[in-house]
Amino acid sequence: MSRDLTGVFVGSHAIAEGLVTAKQLRQLSWRRVVQGVYADPALPFDHRLRCTGVALLLPRGAAIGGHSAAAWHGAPFAGPRDPVTVVRPPDVEWKGPREVRVHRAELTDHDVARHDGVPVTTAQRTAWDVAVLEPLGTAVAALDAMVRAGAVDEADLAQLLAAGAGRWGVVRVRRAFGLVDPRAESAPESWVRVALVLAGLAPVPQFEVRVAGRFVARTDLAFPAARLAVEYEGEHHFEDTQIVRDDARIRRLEAAGWRVIRLSAADLRDLDAVVARIRAALAR
């Protein structure tokens, strides 16, 4: 009978319904998503699966929000082990399991939509909460992706900011919204761009390098006047023939008289050092 369980389920409910015993739940291969919630191990283990598990525990009136909700709005950057952000109204008391981060704030029915049964804050509400709750670079990366995906646009952000004048967190929101640039094609590009802009530099995202009108390459970030390109090479750089294509693109840039700074995930652990490296290259 235990093999009839599929999808995501609350362990205690499955035991009460006779679908599985406590011993089977411990010994068989169901994946523990959060405390008390399990999933079919065949399901991809990502942040949305974890949110789906948390949704089974939510009290009425609460919703998946912030960085977690952004996964439904074009910014799936939260990892499978990251805490799930939940927004609850002031009159709803709920702490949730330890894998959850609960944010207490006003929340109306208009702020929430259901996606496959999961209550998720709307794109507009998510944009505001991400800007309030997350570090600046993380917030801007999520907002860049949401605008790029069409979940919100820059007019929506301007309207949100105007409507939220005087609201708690508006200073953080104004700062994050002012840094949004949907040309960035990945979270690391956004993180590096934000660090550079805050340092007083002005990189151009997704700049097309041309020589005599002929396309040479498109760069992640560029300083055209200095002919300096900044390229981020994530894990995909080493997949299949991607490394060959990337290396050929770098050679074309260098042949066109451009210098290229190549960054990896390890470099992003110290963005101050990245900024110093780029500033030094610009000074040469």
UniProtKB/TrEMBL annotation:
Residues 220-282 form the DUF559 domain. It holds the Pfam family DUF559. InterPro entries: DUF559 (IPR007569), Restrct_endonuc-II-like (IPR011335). Gene3D superfamilies: VSR Endonuclease. This is Uncharacterized protein DUF559. The lineage of its organism: Bacteria, Bacillati, Actinomycetota, Actinomycetes, Geodermatophilales.
